Amino acid sequence: MKKEIRPYTYEVLKDDILMLRRDFPEAEVGSIGKSSWGSNLYYIKLGTGEKKIMYNGAHHGMEWLTSAMLMRFTRDFLEAKLSGRALHGFNVKTLWRRCSLYIVPMVNPDGVQLSAEGLPCRLPQSEKQRLLRMNGKSDFTHWQANARGVDLNHNYDAMWQESKAMEKDYGIYSPGPTRFSGTHPESEPESHALARFTRMHGFRLTISFHSQGKVIYHGFLKKEPPRSLAIAKAYTKISPYRLDETEGIASYGGFKDWFVDKFNFPGYTVEVGEGQNPLPTVQLPQIYKETLPILLGTMTVL
User: Fold this and answer.
1) Which of 97, 106, 159, 218 could form a Cys-Cys staple with 252, CB 3.0–4.6 A?
2) Of 63, 188, 271, 290, which one is the catalytic site residue?
3) Is the pTM of this model over 0.85?
4) Is 11 one of the annotated active-site residues of the chain?
5) Which residue ranges of the chain lie beneath pLDDT 70?
6) Quick check: is 162 catalytic?
7) What are 143-185's pLDDT values in tens digits?
């Protein structure tokens, strides 16, 4: 993993994926689909065990630091396995045999590009004008949505209609930088790809990493199993994150909500770091240190 001196963009992710393939051929690397602009939605599989877990990052464009965190974890995990050393006290070879961990580090590469780099030069002028109208300004730093102006974490089939109905309360009437739920659940190639990937693999636990706030959201409509709360409480004992509950429009249509609703297994949203998004790269070492116990500990709970 290269030293972080700039935003963690899709191009940086591609470079890191290439290096993983070169350095660790035992890691399965592929794509779950394509974004609106045709970028790969990469995944990495770590381990060979029967217990299947999935982590994902950067549902929101300006939360690209979660992708950097997951990729740093991926490399550290693989390096520890290769060398036979422990990682934060965990025997990585044992975890490798116990679990199959799938990591989707950047669910929304187009949104990341808009937030981190602004309008791509390659876009047709008509597409640039469309995005400028949606954003209302030329600065895309705080862009959350995908390239079509849909907030991917409101685009899953978990009380999606409630999310849609609440948009007007937030002044949202059309695609834009945030909160627009799309025309129907999984209307977007990115959310549809992640949902399809989830249905295909039968995960028993998922964590969606967002920023910021140092909080953990768990459960949905009390459909999660009883152990879900116990696991969430365990997270608070090994990290500085606290439990919290979503309010308003944030309570519906998210990936975590959909996973719990449809599969009745533990699902979590972990908000890393503190401050204003996009969090600066200088926070990455501290965020990684705080989150590493959760990333590793989750592989022992099932």
Assistant:
1) 159
2) 271
3) yes
4) no
5) 1-5, 249
6) no
7) 999 999 999 999 999 999 999 999 999 999 999 999 999 999 9
